[in-house]
Automatic annotation (TrEMBL):
<dbReference type="Pfam" id="PF12833">
    <property type="entry name" value="HTH_18"/>
</dbReference>
<dbReference type="InterPro" id="IPR009057">
    <property type="entry name" value="Homeodomain-like_sf"/>
</dbReference>
<dbReference type="GO" id="GO:0003700">
    <property type="term" value="F:DNA-binding transcription factor activity"/>
</dbReference>
<dbReference type="InterPro" id="IPR018060">
    <property type="entry name" value="HTH_AraC"/>
</dbReference>
<keyword id="KW-0805">Transcription regulation</keyword>
<keyword id="KW-0804">Transcription</keyword>
<dbReference type="InterPro" id="IPR050204">
    <property type="entry name" value="AraC_XylS_family_regulators"/>
</dbReference>
<keyword id="KW-0238">DNA-binding</keyword>
<dbReference type="GO" id="GO:0043565">
    <property type="term" value="F:sequence-specific DNA binding"/>
</dbReference>
<protein>
    <submittedName>
        <fullName>Transcriptional regulator, AraC family</fullName>
    </submittedName>
</protein>
<feature type="domain" description="HTH araC/xylS-type">
    <location>
        <begin position="149"/>
        <end position="248"/>
    </location>
</feature>
Amino acid sequence: MDVEHVTGLPHPRLRPFVTRYSGYRIVSGPGVHRGLPSSSLTLVVTVDGTVDLPGASFAALCGGLHDEAVLISHDGFQHGVQCDLTPLGMRAFFGRPAGELSGTTVGLTDLDAPAGELRERLRTARTWADRFAHLDLVLSRLVRPVRQRPEVAWAWQRLAAGAAVAGIAAEVGWSRQHLSARFAAEYGLTPKVAGRVMRFERANRMLRGPRRPTLTEVAAACGYADQAHLNRDWRALCGATPTEWIATELPFVQGGGAGQGAQSLP
C-alpha cells in the first residue's frame, strides 16, 4: 500500500466551522473501508475519481452525523481532500442544521455549494498547501450568520467534556425529554447517542496515536466499564471490535489514520 496523507488547519476565522483538512492519495488493492462515526460532519472533494457508497457515487459530498459505519468501496486508488466540519459549520456554510443530514450523505450540489469550482481548484493546485488555501478561500465565501439555541450548543459542549445527560438537562433547566428532542432536531442524534459516539471517537483517537495503548487502558481512559463494554460498543458503532479494526483498517485516512508518508502543515 502506498499512502500519502497530509493534514492542515483551516484559516483561524474558519476554525469554529472546520477543525481539520486531510489530503489523501492512496494506492492499494480494491476493497471496502469503513467511514467511522464521529462528532464531525464529513465534506469530501475528490481530485480524481469518486467516493462510492452503497447506491451512490460522489465527486464531492457532505455526510451527516451517524451512529454506524458507512461502507466505502474503492478500486484501489483514492485521491482527494476531506474537511471535518463542526455541526455549527453546517449552519454557517449551508444554512441548515446538521440534523437534516443525519445518517445520510448528499452531493455538494444538493447544498447549493460550488462543487465544480472546488473540484477544479483542487485538481489544478500543485501542492497540498495550495489546495488547503483554495478551500479557505471558497469556504470563507460561504460563511453566513449563525443562529442556534444556546442551550443546545451548551449541551453539545458538555457532552464533549464527558458530562452525563441528566446533569446537562438540569444545567439548562430542561427535562431530559425536551433536551433530547431539541438536541436531535439540531444534530440528528440524541444526547445519549452523541455521547456514545464521542466516547468511541476518543477511543479511536487513542488507538491511532504514536504509542498504541492496550485495550484495557483505552477502556479505562474513555469511560467504558471494561474491555468487554468497549468491544460491544465498537461492534455496534464500527461493525468490528477494536482488534479487528486495527488488523483490517488501520491506517486509513477517512478513519483518521496517518499512515506512510504522512505529514502535517501548521
